Amino acid sequence: MPDAGRRETAHPITLTDGTTTRTREATPVDLAPVQELHHRCSLGSRALRYHAGKSGISSAEWRQLSNPERGTTLVTTPADRTDHIIAMTNVMRTDQQGVGELAILVEDAWQARGLGTALVEHAASVARREGHHTLTAVVAASNEPMLHVLEKLEATPTDTTGPVLDLRIPL
Length: 171
Ligand SMILES: CC(C)(COP(=O)(O)OP(=O)(O)OC[C@H]1O[C@@H](n2cnc3c(N)ncnc32)[C@H](O)[C@@H]1OP(=O)(O)O)[C@@H](O)C(=O)NCCC(=O)NCCS
Known about the structure:
Aminopeptidase; 6 helices; disordered N terminus; binds coenzyme A
């Protein structure tokens, strides 16, 4: 039974308010709850994630994100509601050996409770385990929460002149 298998390997994260969550690798069948996550997110959150005014995620995009050959996508659910996805974290391969690209989307209602920080730390462990030595992230210069999260991982911007920063995180 695939769901039971996923639960066994799920990574537990407890939020600052005590709520418990589970994070596991995504599979192609998660498309519908991932689309629902996107629809519940504000336009602002989606714009910060995609740097574009996107309303959702297409099945073609999800096929890429959930394809293990392209990288690892993690999905997070409340511990007591494992079919309800509240965050998506991507560590995707790039054309540079050992360099992965990190992106994350936490549903608005679940933000500012420590989930983003814990997911980025977990993503760094996953990336290390997969043999990456560096993560990159593209972050709007105005995105204080994400820049704050990445500061804790000693991320350094490679260019600070534009509205979007390219950061490198040593693993
Ligand atoms: C950026 C993001 C992942 C952070 O997730 P989160 O669950 O809110 O993160 P945390 O709760 O761990 O908070 C991280 C820090 O930002 C601060 N923060 C959170 N929301 C904030 C807000 N709206 N304004 C200011 N600071 C905020 C927190 O206080 C925390 O700082 P601390 O560690 O000093 O307490 C989440 O806001 C998000 O998904 N945003 C939309 C998509 C995005 O920006 N993705 C990043 C680019 S790929």
